[in-house]
Amino acid sequence: MAVRVPAGFQALPLPIAQLSLAAVLKCGQSFRWSIFPLQISGNTPLQHVDPTHEYRLCLRDRVVCLRQSPDTLFYRSLFPTGVLGDQEQREAETLAWIRDYFQLDIDLVNLYRQWSATDPVFNRIQDRFEGIRMLRQDPFENLISFICSSNNNISRITKMVGSLCRTYSPALLHLAPPAGSDLVEEPYHPFPSPSSLAAPEVSAQLRALGFGYRADFIQKTAAMLVEAHGVNRSPKTSSEPSEEWLMTLRDKDTAAARTELLNFMGVGRKVADCVLLMSLDKREVIPVDTHVQQIATKYYGFRGPTKTGTMSPKLYEEVSSKLTAVWGDYAGWAHSVLFTSDLKSFASYGLASPSTPSTPSTPGLTPDRHSASSQDTAGIATPRDSMPKSGKRKRGGSNRSLETKTREAEIEETLVQLEAVVEDAISEGTVDLSLADRVKRRRRGTLSTR
């Protein structure tokens, strides 16, 4: 198939089986990518498949723009006006960043092949959910983002991270959406530094922005880093000492790195494991929550508590060990594929479009990049055709319609989110515990009537 390179972009041969931007940048690993639909020409030759979206991320010194066709990744970098430098060297730097950020030295197709050979569950979903790999993010951004993730969903985390950047990091440059130069330019902000979040007044400012109890965690974690490591930036990397120290955790073993992370405010086992997996090269680590426990129970024979509730350290370790035994050294990567397949916004991902049966659809990407579903948390409604069929019928489930099950899942998710909102309100002192109790009783009563 011929490759038509968009104006201003460079081309990197890369099949979607190795990297699917439509999945990786929407599945809850990173929360700062801006996603824009592209206008597709009506007279595109049959031998061409033009990209459908552009993805943008603001780094410290540039904005990286990506597009993708079935077999090619297109990239370019944009800089503030007046910045001098050799264009060829800049593109080489951007390509090096892309290779590192997406960990392209790891053969994902080979990993899928290994997991499919040993795991019938993975074997059934591999074709629909191809190209899902772990990002190698900046550790500080990753740490703060997942402190924001506590009792939260992808849409709300994205808004919080955006607020952090706009409030505590000056805009690097302004760009119009790719659909046309006549559209309004938007500012692009790098992720803020530890020192910009460490001041005592940050807590109150973040509470005013709707961060709830997470506000104190963010400010205190940033303050701990700054107090321990200082603020003098490295002339070579423009990084603060605490950011460089976090990078050194990549060289520590998993247990030692986890111990360091658990010292920070708002960092429990799950948040620590997310950071270990997504930015510190600990590829075997599986972040566990009740949704991952449900996956382990439903599809991998895990025998644990049937009622959802607090994830005890013992239960966490048992689930993690169970799934690591299935997937091996890259268990965290395999977990990400199963996790993504379980997201409600990916319920029709990879299925044929009704209008064009031979063309895979890309759900989860909406025309408005700001309208991510509020239900983009890991649910338990994995598409039925993506999992192995069992000869046993689940009690009480055979006579209920798919519509009924979907509605029940939506009700449960809404109640979970309401609980989180009430918890935030309690932390702000704007609601009493009696309301929280009523919400929880309502949820238990709804679940018990199924």
TrEMBL record:
Q: Enzyme group, top EC level?
A: lyase
Please give the SUPFAM superfamilies that the UniProt record associates with this protein.
DNA-glycosylase, TATA-box binding protein-like
Name where it mostly resides.
nucleus
Q: Name one GO molecular function term.
A: damaged DNA binding
Query: What Pfam families does the record point to?
Result: HhH-GPD, OGG_N
Q: Superkingdom of the source?
A: Eukaryota
For this record, an example GO cellular component is: nucleus
Domain HhH-GPD residues, every copy: 148-343
Concerning Gene3D superfamilies, the annotation shows: 3.30.310.40, Helix-hairpin-Helix base-excision DNA repair enzymes (C-terminal), Hypothetical protein, domain 2
List, as start-end ranges, the regions of compositional bias called Low complexity: 353-363
Q: What is this protein called?
A: DNA-(apurinic or apyrimidinic site) lyase
